Amino acid sequence: MHDSNQTDPPAEAGEDASGLFSTLLPPPPPPGLPSIPRALLIWLGILVIFGVGGVLLGEQELALLAAFSGVFVAARAADVDTNWRELYFVLGWVVPVLGFILSMAVGFAIWKSDLPGFTRAALFLMASCSAGVAVVSVATPAADFMVRVLFHEPQPGHLLRLSARCVALAFALAIPGWFASQQVIADLLNDPHPFMDNVGLGGGLVGYVLLAFAGGGFLTRRTLGETARRLGLRVPKLRDVGLAALALGALWLINTGVDLLQQRFLPGLWASDRRISEAIAAGMGPGRVVLLGLSAGIGEEITLRGALQPRLGILWTSAFFAILHVQYSWFGMIVIFILGTVLGLVRKHASTSAAMLAHIAYDVIAVLEH
Fold it and tell me: What's the whole-model pTM score?
């Protein structure tokens, strides 16, 4: 998701794509002559099908991610062929505007909360700063600065600027967003219906795959095989399976160890995180448990470890991974950061496919334990 029209970062170990992928599409057009109109038409068809389908099926997350993928497709097209810059400029406002609206909504929720006065004022100021980041990021020099800081790329393109805006806004809103989300989560926990009944697992999985392939340049810059290589996807080899098994053991040991520590020294936080985990597992049959593992394991790994990590690095990607799990306590998010680092190392030394295997198995076991 995060490479521009410049040379990609060095491939991480194990990123070779299977010949199965590379034979499915014709070779890319010669440099300077990208078949952008054809690519955009295909992408338009894909996004309309999944976007409209998501709306009709009540899969709001799928519809939103399909629309978001369209912005990344436009950014990639503008990087490859300057004739399509106008298309991107029409769509590129989405991230700053949504970031501003979300930041102001979080700030308003905090201001209306019953938090202590100083805490409420500090969090409201943070949310306001996040809104300011959204506004400032519209300017190309500011976006270029974000790219240099986050991705260490001296010559940004449209795709990298878009990606940097997304990452910067997520980090800027992390702390106030966590506080604002607690009341929403409390309301969901008090709802008599199972917690996961409100989540469309299959739609999220498809949506994140679309987003990763859109940012990875599928059709606009790369064939399917080249996109798979960029994302670290391949048919799992014996080494992938072995490292995934080792990672699964490490994830389980880390989680078990920190769970005991949290229960011993932070019993209040332990009870809160335990309640969230039990709410996620409540009312889920075996089939839905597996679907949950596939949705999180494939969706999160292909976008974060596959697309983002080669640009942002293991530690910052793990931090990004942690702040997406606002349902947990601050201690729980630190644990998720550690688990994400383990998965990042698997991606670096094997492949995204191996990280997916470990993540899927870990989530399934974690849910079944509750």
Answer: 0.89
